[in-house]
């Protein structure tokens, strides 16, 4: 089973290839991805590495956590599962959702306004 590792506080110069090469010395790397900003195309400063097994992942975490890369001390630990939040409303499989406040919205204050 593979283990996913979170790598934070990365310098903006780090690419997928350099991230993969840093972790490859500890064992098999399934994937390495630096998260990029959609609008600017620049690194967000964190990424994820998927290692072949848990033992190799733990060895990489112990060795690389706190290591200085281009003057920045990187954070390396096991990735947590993505949290599923309901969000702030919007379209979903069940249709359009909004906040369910009874004191705000149409019909509760004239001209579509509500009591605030």
TrEMBL record:
SUPFAM superfamilies: RNA-binding domain, RBD. It comes from the Bacteria. Gene3D superfamilies: 3.30.70.330. The keyword Oxidoreductase does not apply. It holds the Pfam family RRM_1. One of its GO terms (molecular function) is RNA binding. Residues 3-81 form the RRM domain. The keyword Mitochondrion does not apply. InterPro entries: Nucleotide-bd_a/b_plait_sf, RBD_domain_sf, RRM2_NsCP33-like, RRM_dom, SLIRP/GR-RBP-like. Keywords: RNA-binding. PANTHER family: HETEROGENEOUS NUCLEAR RIBONUCLEOPROTEIN 87F-RELATED (PTHR48027). This is RNA recognition motif-containing protein. The lineage of its organism: Bacteria, Pseudomonadati, Pseudomonadota, Betaproteobacteria, Burkholderiales.
């Amino acid at each position: 089973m593979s283990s996913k590792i979170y790598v934070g506080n990365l310098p903006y110069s780090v690419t997928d290839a350099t991230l993969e090469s840093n972790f490859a010395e500890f064992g098999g790397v399934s994937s390495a991805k630096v998260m990029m900003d959609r609008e600017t195309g620049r690194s967000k400063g964190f990424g994820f590495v998927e290692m072949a097994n848990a033992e190799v992942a733990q060895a990489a975490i112990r060795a690389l956590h706190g290591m200085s890369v281009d003057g920045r001390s990187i954070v390396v630990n096991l990735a947590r599962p993505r949290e599923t939040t309901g969000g702030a409303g919007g379209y979903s499989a069940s249709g359009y959702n909004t906040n369910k406040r009874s004191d705000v919205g149409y019909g509760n204050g004239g001209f579509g306004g509500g009591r605030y």
